[in-house]
Amino acid sequence: xxxxxxxxxxxxxxxxxxxxxxxxxxxxxxxxxxxxxxxxxxxxxxxxxxxxxxxxxxxxxxxxxxxxxxxxxxxxxxxxxxxxxxxxxxxxxxxxxxxxxxxxxxxxxxxxx
Amino acid sequence: xxxxxxxxxxxxxxxxxxxxxxxxxxxxxxxxxxxxxxxxxxxxxxxxxxxxxxxxxxxxxxxxxxxxxxxxxxxxxxxxxxxxxxxxxxxxxxxxxxxxxxxxxxxxxxxxxx
Lengths: 113, 114
Hints:
heterodimer; A: mainly beta; 7-stranded mixed sheet; 4-stranded antiparallel sheet; B: mainly beta; 6-stranded mixed sheet; 5-stranded antiparallel sheet; 0% helix; globular
């Protein structure tokens, strides 16, 4: 079972460059989301999606774009990378039951120089 | 303003003893409380949860206690094992929000010494 798959696992960017973090899930989950983890900050929600074609902002959306063209995929785009976006990014999905249990990917570590 | 606080950044216990991890929250509208465990270089994994209508939920060595009057959540691990060494995040779900939106604490690093 693949679960939630994120690529790449590691990436180094220069300030101003753009890139896309890929996320795919094979559990037919409606809900997908992106979190970032920074030292001493816990996990903070960037963007989320309740289904194909529907996305919304989370707690820290600035500098990031998302789209959801299929149920399986939820890419996160950095349009012009900044050093403040150096972080570990986690994609998560859920069936949407009220417990709110999320299934996380293994993470993508991004460094912006 | 932090809605979920884990005031202890780290905790160290001996193998076989009890580990108690704490979490405080501010909003009485939170209806579900969860604990996630995270090993280095891995994604967080769900550990245990509790509904706001309960005050205790147990799963093997893990028990979560909820004190609504104090807005306090705790995770007890008994007995603690070296494999329990990880970062533990508490998370809360708001009853008026979408199911996938959880607010996380900053985490507590638990180290269980052999």
